[in-house]
Task: structure prediction
Amino acid sequence: MKRSGKDAARYITTLSDDQGQEDYELTVTGPRVLVEKVFAKSDFEISISPKATAKEAEARANELWAKYSATTKEIAPAEDLKSLLKTAPKDATAKSAVVVSLRRIRGDGTFFAIWFPTLLIPRGVSIFFVGPPAIFCRGSVFPLPLVGGDPDLFLTLNGISPPVVSSSTLAGPAIDTVAFMVLPTLLIPPLPVIPFYRILGFSTSLTGFFCWSF
Result:
């Protein structure tokens, strides 16, 4: 990825879909030291299929979820009472947050899937993943066995300030999942929303993150 900026860094790369069209950009912004710490041991996989149908997208997403969820344990007991007594998360700050954004430069179409296998998220740090417009979106964190920590996951729409529409704050190294669907009405077709996923390190965590949208 190309980097610009020194202390407040911006990393950007162009992506292509399964049709070979380079119509997408992945951008990572945040304090350079924090970005390098979070992504030190991580790579990523991104699948973009602009011509996929809703049925094809769901089948592909379920296949990927089964593959990536195998990296952790689905059920984990609470380690202590403190891990159960979670309060509402504090607002993120410019010094404690990294933003990852996937956007379309041109064209149309859908089905996006993103996988980051090893994110190191310090306690109190937030990683925001911003997806392209969608009528359905879902995301999960998969803490790695033995060193997983406790990441929590929140979903807002069209920005980080609107109310949380879905959250998961399971204790310990369990899989946290959030999702949202725009319901159609009789008179108005479903209008896409932009998903904002927030992974918060309740404790220092090494986790994978998977999200998909249609």
